[in-house]
Design a protein that fits this description.
Order of helices and strands: EEEEEEEEEEEEEEEEEEE
Shape: globular
Largest sheet: 6 strands, antiparallel
Number of strands: 19
Strand order of the largest sheet: 2-3-4-11-6-9
Length: 202
């Protein structure tokens, strides 16, 4: 039988410098085509205040994994946008990668999960969950479907015609779903991500 999922461990994440040179990111998943980056999932530490890297054409979603808080201010052309204030783990916000975004730390560094999707033809659905929670993987139609474990998690994967599979997922690991399935988050906290195409087939 084909595998339902694969677990990506932090040792498999690709360490890359930030475009602005102020830090580095751990790239978990990346999808590119002839145009450029279509989707990227990464984890990073923000250890000092400063301007975020410029990613024009990408929609960004940031989820705080740990830390005492961060505030993001955004500006495009001469327009200032509402602040995004993160006070607790699993707080999240979406903003344009092409905006000028400045980060102000509340009290020390934070860890975050960053999801980027190309605005022209791709959308990332991001939701934070605490157990117990039912989830549905549509990996058969999604570009990516998976769970990032913000803490140690246990999930049960159900697929018609197969016995339920209990899976333990360690903190900071990622479950990449490969088949359509129903999941139950039995314990722990996680970020469920589904990336789909918005382009129409003519």
């Amino acid at each position: 039988m084909p595998s339902l999922y694969r677990i990506i461990s932090p040792t498999q994440y690709k360490r890359m410098p930030w475009k602005n040179g102020l830090g580095e990111t751990l790239e978990i998943m990346r999808l590119e085509d002839g145009i450029g980056v279509r989707f990227r999932l990464s984890q990073a530490s923000v250890v000092e205040e400063g301007e975020f890297s410029f990613f024009d054409g990408l929609q960004r979603t940031l989820v705080m994994l740990s830390g005492n808080g961060i505030t993001l201010s955004h500006q495009s052309d001469e327009t200032c946008h509402p602040l995004h204030v993160f006070n607790h783990a699993l707080d999240q916000a979406s903003f344009l990668g092409g905006d000028k975004t400045y980060a102000t730390l509340t009290d020390g560094p934070i860890e975050d999960l960053n999801i980027m999707a190309r605005q022209a033809d791709t959308v990332a659905h991001v939701a934070t969950h605490s157990s117990p929670m039912m989830l549905k993987s549509e990996a058969n139609v999604a570009l990516f479907a998976g769970l990032y474990a913000q803490s140690d998690c246990q999930i049960v994967i159900n697929v018609a015609g197969r016995a339920p599979e209990v899976v333990s997922v360690l903190q900071d690991h990622t479950v990449h779903m490969l088949e359509e399935a129903e999941l139950t988050l039995v314990s722990g906290n996680g970020i469920w991500i589904t990336v789909t195409s918005t382009s129409k087939i003519c």
